[in-house]
Write a structure and sequence with these properties.
The complex is a heterodimer.
Chain A: E1 4-8, H1 17-28, E2 32-35, H2 42-51, E3 56-61, H3 66-79, E4 86-91, H4 95-103, E5 106-110, H5 116-131
Parallel strand pairs in A: 1-2, 1-3, 3-4, 4-5
Chain B: H1 2-15, H2 19-30, E1 45-49, H3 56-69, E2 74-80, E3 89-91, E4 106-112, H4 124-133, E5 138-142, E6 159-164, H5 171-175, H6 179-182, E7 185-188, H7 196-210, E8 217-220, H8 229-237, H9 246-263, H10 268-277, H11 282-288
Parallel strand pairs in B: 1-5, 1-6, 2-4, 2-5, 6-7, 7-8
Helix pairs in contact in B: 1-2, 2-4, 3-8
Classes of the chains: A alpha/beta, B alpha/beta.
Chain lengths: 147, 289
């Protein structure tokens, strides 16, 4: 099932090789990917997700600011009544920080060494969960996560 | 009936400025839904076309800023190609229009061609009608990077801007037929680079040669240092809709709809396989369709 997905680079982080590889992999799996480019504010990312009517947003961060930027994106999605949007993350996010992000409704965190095929599998799974009306959006009941 | 009524509510919310509703309605149109909105004859629609890499997206980005500064509401439909292999797409136009992700006066939607012939989808019309109805005063369609003979954009836009770069070849390029004859404005972007003046002069001479009274606007711009942008906006705002083009416009619309019909034909796959195996020839294929 083809989806519209935003791949975003929040904050002051100049490295987007990873984000571009992901964007390319999703494209090759048949998805329509909107790439935001570097150094975007959480509010801008939410705006892009809204205007593009994207099903999911992937946040790539390698700057160490994930515990500030990712919660901000989740918060703004909720305040814009976009709790059905699926949030996943990638980059350098230490294991010890992940539980907090999951508790905010982030559904998957992909670290270094992840195979692109497992991100594609994740997207297929969220698509199925969405179709079966199971919790998967950032504003829906947390608990389920990709592992 | 109930569906139509609920759309009416969505449409009214979108008209009141609800961006999310607008975005969702555009998705509906893209998926083939028809919305109960009348065709608008006075939408202001600019088609921006030109080869890949000449700076169309970046130029649109700075044009948006100029228009918003003048109190306009600008909506952009930015089209990028779908992969003919996977069907996926990487939509990267809006990353060059980053100033546009703030404020209420800009709306950008990225669209994949989904392999519609000519890179333009027949439902663009409905999208334009919706945007116009919702109060967007300047509607821009950015085509995929395109070549000389791709003129389908006239089916959807009532004003055409061709963007080119400096150093795109000798004067003979400007003598060739095609989209260059239909453009209301021709912009040589990246005027900060050498040879931009030469490129603009070649085009002007070529246009004068074919018609002494030619009123095609030819301009130089540089998006990175904002040169020529206010002047370009001034010219675009004053463009008159070219009435002589209406038959061509209707013809291109018809071809677009025809293509769509062909590609959505339920026996298309079967016919393609028969053609591949040599079981039928092209004439027979047309007959079967």
């Amino acid at each position: 099932m083809s989806m519209r997905i935003v791949i975003a680079k929040p904050g002051l982080d100049g490295h987007d090789r990873g984000a571009k590889v992901i964007a390319r992999a999703l494209r090759d799996a048949g998805h329509e990917v909107i790439y935001t480019g570097l150094r975007r504010k959480p509010s801008e990312i939410v705006r892009v997700v809204m205007d593009e009517d994207a099903v999911a947003v992937g946040l790539s961060t390698l700057s160490g600011a994930h515990n500030v930027l990712i919660p901000k994106v989740c918060e703004e999605l909720l305040s814009n009544d976009m709790g059905d949007v699926i949030v996943f993350a990638g980059g350098i996010i230490p294991e010890s920080d992940r539980e907090y992000l999951y508790s905010l409704g982030v559904r998957a965190i992909f670290g270094p060494g992840t195979k692109t095929s497992s991100i594609i599998d994740f997207l297929e799974t969220i698509s199925e969960r969405k179709d079966s009306e199971l919790d998967v959006g950032v504003g829906e009941k947390t608990g389920w996560r990709w592992s | 009936m109930e569906m139509v009524l609920s759309f009416e509510k969505n449409i009214s919310l979108a008209k009141q400025g609800n961006r999310r509703e607008l975005a969702k309605l555009l998705t509906l149109i893209e998926s083939g839904e028809r919305l109960p909105i009348e065709e608008s004859n006075n939408s202001w629609v600019l088609g921006v076309t030109g080869p890949p890499g000449v700076g169309k997206s970046t130029l649109i980005g700075v044009m948006i800023e100029e228009w918003v500064g003048r109190g306009e509401k600008v909506a952009v439909l930015a089209i990028d190609p779908s992969s003919p292999k996977s069907g996926g797409a990487l939509l990267g136009d809006r990353m060059r229009m980053t100033s546009a992700d703030n404020g209420e006066s800009v709306f950008i939607r990225s669209l994949a061609t989904r392999n519609h012939p000519g890179g333009l989808m027949p439902f663009l019309d409905s999208m334009i009608n919706l945007l116009s109805y919702c109060g967007w005063t300047k509607i821009i369609i950015e085509t995929v990077g395109s070549g000389q003979s791709e003129i389908r954009i006239v089916a959807f836009a009532n004003r055409i801007m061709l963007v080119d770069g400096p150093d795109r070849g000798d004067i003979i390029q400007a003598e060739k037929a095609g989209i260059i004859e239909l453009a209301d404005a021709i912009v040589i972007n990246k005027s900060d680079l050498p040879n931009a003046d030469n490129a603009a002069n070649s085009i002007k001479k070529s246009l004068e040669y074919s018609n002494k009274n030619n009123d095609t606007v030819v301009m130089l711009t540089s998006s990175i240092n904002n040169n020529g942008i206010p002047e370009l906006i001034e010219e675009l705002d004053n463009l008159k809709v070219n009435k002589e083009r209406s038959i061509l416009r209707i013809k291109e619309r018809l071809i677009s709809a025809w293509d769509y019909k062909l590609l959505s034909n339920s026996s298309l796959d079967e016919i393609l396989l028969d053609l591949q195996s040599g079981a039928i020839n092209l004439d027979e294929a047309l007959e079967n369709l």
